[in-house]
Design goal:
- There is one protein chain.
- The protein is an alpha/beta fold.
- Helix content is about 35%, strand content about 15%.
- The mean pLDDT is about 95.
């Protein structure tokens, strides 16, 4: 089996960025091209740490609208405009991604200079576009209005990241989650379009606008996701069709190179039907596909079953988990990294 690269989606539930960098670098060596800081501490549960951006916003107040990603996911009370306020009163001055990244990059650089991190490895920062964040935090009838306002703030975070971190050291990943793929799978029209095709086109246009804000020289990555609340998808993907189609749309729409697109593979899908849409994938030569087919719960044997089927449809790909490690018990991380290393061909 040829050696493969390993992609880390983002979160790693260890003590802090230093422990994440050192642990992952030691386990995966030169097969990992980019290192996230693990989104440790309050960021462990993906975007829930962003609630103060809405709770402290002077134009917003809690609504009666309660949202769940799925039936067993925690309920979240969405926010609405206060009486007498309009969308013109909404400001998102700081989303804090760049502030946090600067601190983590200082740790990254120190460990790289000490030889703990291999030279040439990039520091990875994950950003979440408006459609996923607003799905959790903003009342349904307000999302279309707030989307461009929030994404303008995401664009400013990109600018701050590019100004603070050398381009050759930086990778920016956009998390394209269940707010996109669950809507497409369920044909949940409304906020982002009146048909599945219109929704896909609008999501691709929004993502392309953000992606083209990332300067050349910075690695551009996409993580596709169907959700991981309580280790459960918002909706189970029928196959990789919607993801392949979105990847093709982004490839056509984005002016700059895309370095990597990650797609999840459910644990019970080692069948040809799931992977067959990869035959329709039209990535540029510089874009690496990463397949999230590593699962802790069925170890190396299950990973190799999924890998063998995937190879019938796409030969050269990196391996990953479906989503971040963040909601996993920390004591499972050494074994999970061992599975990655074995599947990647690391001696």
């Amino acid at each position: 089996m040829p050696p493969r690269n390993v992609h880390l989606v983002g979160s790693v539930p260890l003590r802090d960025a230093a422990e994440v960098f050192a642990t992952v670098a030691a386990a995966l060596g030169d097969r990992v091209m980019r290192l996230p800081d693990g989104e440790t501490g309050e960021r462990r549960d993906w975007i829930t740490w962003l609630e103060p951006v809405f709770a402290a916003n002077p134009a917003l107040e809690p609504s009666d609208e309660v949202f769940r990603l799925h039936a067993t996911a925690p309920p979240r009370r969405r926010y609405r405009l206060k009486p007498g306020r309009s969308a013109a009163d909404l400001r998102f001055d700081n989303l804090f991604y760049a502030d946090i990244a600067r601190r983590s990059y200082d740790v990254f650089r120190r460990l790289r200079d000490a030889g703990t991190i291999r030279r040439g490895t990039r520091f990875q920062v994950d950003l979440v576009p408006a459609h996923s964040v607003l799905w959790l935090f903003i009342a349904e009838d307000l999302q279309a209005v707030v989307d461009p306002l929030y994404n303008a703030a995401v664009a400013r975070e990109i600018d701050k990241l590019a100004a603070a971190i050398p381009r050759a050291d930086l990778a920016i990943q956009f998390d394209v989650a269940s707010a996109v793929f669950a809507r497409l799978a369920r044909n949940e029209t409304g906020v982002y379009g009146l048909s599945k095709d219109a929704m896909a086109a609008n999501f691709a246009k929004i993502l392309a606008g953000l992606a083209d804000r990332v300067p050349n020289g910075v690695d551009l990555l996409f993580h596709f996701c169907y959700g991981d609340s309580n280790h459960r998808h918002v909706v189970e993907p029928t196959d990789m069709g919607d993801m392949a189609e979105m990847a093709n749309r982004l490839t056509r729409a984005i002016a700059r190179p895309i370095q990597l697109i990650h797609m999840p593979v459910p644990r019970d899908r080692d069948d040809d039907a799931y992977f067959a849409p990869l035959a329709n994938l039209r990535l540029e030569a510089e874009t690496e596909l990463a397949l999230g087919l590593v699962h802790y719960t069925d170890s190396l044997a299950g990973t190799r079953r999924r890998l063998a089927t995937a190879e019938r449809y796409w030969k050269n790909f990196a391996i990953a988990t479906e989503c971040g490690f963040g909601r996993r018990p920390p004591e499972t991380i050494p074994e999970l990294l061992r599975i990655h290393a074995a599947a990647a061909g690391i001696a």
